[in-house]
């Protein structure tokens, strides 16, 4: 296993250094194993591991390529792990959201465009207090995604989206069991848009923090 780890580290170093770039094809297995001083079996295990986490793309009969290395692609493995959460670990997910999403909103407040603000307002207008819970949850996911994307950090946005999708059950549960959940959510979203429009990062971060912590507090009481 140590030898396989060494092979993974070596391939990673080749990518980090720029020797291998997104879309590049790796040298043939025999050539690469000899160059790295590794057995072909160790190299195969390393390639298999890097394929699982979407760093490499093994194309049968064609060769092995470095993927696009886009944040969304690389964070798929994390999203898979998050999807396996249980009702207690979802509390930990909300704790992490309570740290990351206010930061993302603060970033967004400094650079958000009029078009992006308009998209947020349109998302709010797409649902009302009488809308089905599923529609509210769909809006909520889109609303938070738009904010994180507006901040301009693709890794942060992908990380937040991966965690956010894992809390869908909790959001639906809240919508069904808590009186006024839809109206409260929409009101808080409007306050967040106003904070973003003000260009004040502290105000935007505080508005999102209050929103996420409100859900977290309800969930803790419900559990």
Automatic annotation (TrEMBL):
CDD domains: WHTH_GntR. Keywords: DNA-binding, Transcription, Transcription regulation. It holds the Pfam family FCD. GO terms for molecular function: DNA binding; DNA-binding transcription factor activity. It comes from the Bacteria. Residues 1-69 form the HTH gntR-type domain. PANTHER family: TRANSCRIPTIONAL REGULATOR, GNTR FAMILY, UXU OPERON TRANSCRIPTIONAL REGULATOR. This is GntR family transcriptional regulator. It comes from Amnibacterium flavum.
């Amino acid at each position: 296993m140590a030898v396989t780890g060494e092979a993974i580290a070596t391939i990673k170093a080749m990518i980090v250094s720029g020797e291998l770039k997104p879309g590049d094809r790796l040298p043939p297995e025999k050539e690469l194993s000899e160059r790295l001083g590794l057995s072909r079996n160790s190299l195969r295990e390393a390639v298999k591991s890097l394929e699982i986490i979407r760093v490499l793309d093994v194309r049968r009969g064609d060769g092995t390529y470095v993927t696009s290395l886009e944040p969304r692609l690389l964070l798929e493995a994390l999203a898979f792990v998050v999807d396996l959460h249980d009702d207690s670990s979802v509390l930990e997910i909300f704790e992490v959201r309570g740290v990351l999403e206010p930061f993302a909103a603060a970033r967004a407040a400094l650079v958000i465009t009029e078009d992006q603000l308009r998209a947020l307002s349109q998302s709010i207008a797409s649902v009302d207090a009488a809308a089905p819970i599923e529609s509210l949850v769909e809006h909520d996911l889109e609303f938070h995604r738009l904010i994180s994307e507006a901040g301009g950090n693709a890794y942060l946005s992908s990380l937040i989206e991966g965690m956010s999708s894992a809390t869908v059950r909790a959001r639906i549960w809240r919508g069904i069991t808590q009186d006024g959940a839809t109206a409260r959510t929409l009101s808080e979203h409007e306050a967040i848009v106003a904070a973003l429009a003000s260009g004040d990062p502290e105000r935007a971060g505080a508005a999102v923090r209050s929103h996420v912590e409100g859900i977290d507090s309800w969930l803790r009481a419900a559990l």
